[in-house]
Amino acid sequence: MQIPLQSFYTFFVVCRAGSMKEAARQLHVTAGAISQRIRELELRHGQRLFERTRAGVVPTAAGAALYADLLASFQQIETVARRDLPDDTARQLVVSVMPSFASGWLLPRLGDFARRHPAVSLAIDSDARVVDLKTEAVDFAIRHGLGHYPGLEARWLMSPAMIVVGAPGLLRQGPPIRCPADCLAYPLLHDRERQDWRLWLQASGSESPKARRGLSFSDEHMLVRAACEGQGLALVRDIYAAADLQKGTLCKALEGQWPTQFGYYLVGLADSFAASGGRAFVDWIQAEAARSPGV
């Protein structure tokens, strides 16, 4: 018989914490993973083990009985597991980062953070999806936008050089582009989230529902290739288009300096910024960003 120890321990931690979110933080997994383990355990037992409330979760009668059965065993296991840990063991600090930012800027610098803060256990989540910092076991996210994240704190890090590029043939055949709003006369090429054009035009005073239309790509290099093929205009960081600009397969469609609020922000809950490990990471990444304002 296979014993689902991971699910049992997850159930035990959720009962003790009274919250799936807090259990996720303690176990260093996402809230979705916690929910999945509890669902599997409930299916195994054939009945609900928790009642959901606004404040969190409370065990049902069946859940309370199971918790009583597990309590002594898992407390003893935890005591043994903690016995040999050093006093300065820190909780894991989880940071969600877009893959392109992680590989292009953050990764080469992480060794410096590890040397400066050896007691902080740092985990980088480079999933392209947007995490929910209020419900998932993630302390910080590095996001690209205008810095408006309701219910969260945001610290500006840097504003990369964003440029509008298009194939020479497309730009010759189309209407002239003298200001950001003129880009809307062309097909727009997007990344997966379809946010950059909308936010860039909003920052330039040219917000329009047309900013979400057009093809989207999961990879910024594919986005540049589509622009080279004349499929539309791309709004990209200059480093991704540099080689094609030099070869002449792309041209800048517009020149100008754009508002600095359109940039990269470190985002998190107030508690994350206040925690000792969080403060160490915040101070370090802001100092690194100040030394390299572009990406």
TrEMBL record:
<dbReference type="InterPro" id="IPR005119">
    <property type="entry name" value="LysR_subst-bd"/>
</dbReference>
<feature type="domain" description="HTH lysR-type">
    <location>
        <begin position="3"/>
        <end position="60"/>
    </location>
</feature>
<keyword id="KW-0804">Transcription</keyword>
<keyword id="KW-0805">Transcription regulation</keyword>
<keyword id="KW-0238">DNA-binding</keyword>
<dbReference type="InterPro" id="IPR000847">
    <property type="entry name" value="LysR_HTH_N"/>
</dbReference>
<dbReference type="Pfam" id="PF00126">
    <property type="entry name" value="HTH_1"/>
</dbReference>
<dbReference type="InterPro" id="IPR036388">
    <property type="entry name" value="WH-like_DNA-bd_sf"/>
</dbReference>
<protein>
    <submittedName>
        <fullName>LysR family transcriptional regulator</fullName>
    </submittedName>
</protein>
<comment type="similarity">
    <text>Belongs to the LysR transcriptional regulatory family.</text>
</comment>
<dbReference type="Pfam" id="PF03466">
    <property type="entry name" value="LysR_substrate"/>
</dbReference>
<dbReference type="InterPro" id="IPR036390">
    <property type="entry name" value="WH_DNA-bd_sf"/>
</dbReference>
<dbReference type="InterPro" id="IPR058163">
    <property type="entry name" value="LysR-type_TF_proteobact-type"/>
</dbReference>
